[in-house]
Structure formats: structure tokens, C-alpha cells
Amino acid sequence: MSYGDPNNPYGQPPQQPPAAPGYGYPQAPPGVPPQQGYGYPQQPAYPGYPGGNMMQQSMPGLLVTARVFLFLISAVQILFAIIYLYVGAIASDAGDSGEDLGLSGMGEAGDAVAGIAIIGALIAGGLAVLSIMLGVKFSRGGQGVRITTVVYGALGGIVGLIGLFVGLDSGLATAIIGPLIWVTFAVIITIAPVVPSGTAWFNRPRY
Fold it and tell me: What is the pLDDT of residue 107?
């Protein structure tokens, strides 16, 4: 009995040749585990940008509050600008009327008051524009907006403290409430960009 006979049913089955690898798949040397994906090692997933998973997606709550306060302050500043303009117009008209009645010096006094009122209106209007611009730029601004907001809030806090001391000295409750609210707003606006969450927001990468 010969095991080499291919027709022998009891013989050893013939050895099959190894299957040919698929086209385009390089063969790994012996002892090296096969690689996935056309023989190339898989690259680790990249998050799209450095620190992408750690980047803050929404503005911190304290900054949102400071932003609202900036818009409220701008509304008050616009109101003061309108009042100053109105007072200036009244002073100018009163001076002209006094001159028509023969009251000497009324015209000059009216013009002086009107000039001071106009200057106050310009200052209040400029501060209102600054408040609105800072509030708007909170969403995309960087370190420049952050530093300007801190300085602006600190200066506003100093003005509010002066008004608060004057109100306390007067003993009138109505003279205390306004400056106290102003100081509270200024403190929130000043510290919001300084706390860690605010600093991280203004330092976040932008794409």
C-alpha cells in the first residue's frame, strides 16, 4: 500500500499550497502580528485641534452676568447723555430769554451751563459706546478686551465708591442705593475676566 498514490482512499491527503495573500496586502515577517488596514498601523484619533475636548464651548456664567451689566450700564449712560443734552438746551434757552428781558450776564451764564452739559453728554455717550463694544466683544475678544474690561470696571468702581461715601455722609437712603448698585456692577465686571473661568475663556483658541 502506497501513501503516495493519489487514488488510494487510505493514503495521506495531499498538502494544499498556502493561500496567496490578497492583492495590495504586504506580508508581515514571521513573528510580527498582522497589521490592520492594508498593512499600515492605525493612527490614533486626533481630536481636530489641540485641546479640543477641553475647550470651553459656552461663556462662563459670571462673564454672562458681567456682559448683561455692561449693557445695563450703557443704557443708563445713554439716558444721562440725553438728560445732559436736554439740560444744556434749557440753559441755552434760558440765557437767551434773560438777555431778551435785559438781564445782563444771563446769556453768558446760560452758554456756560450749556457747554458743561454738552461735555457731560459727550462723555456719557462715549462711555455708553465703550460699554456696548466690550459687551459685544465678549464672545470673540481676546486679552485686549479682557484687560480693558478690568480697567473699565475698576474705574467705575472707584467712581461708585466716591458716590457711596457721599451718600453715606448725607444720611439719605436714596443717595446710597444708586452708588451701591453701581459698585456691585463694577465689582462683577472687574472680577469676571480675572477668575480662572474668565481667564480661560479669553485665552481659548479661536478657529
Answer: 75
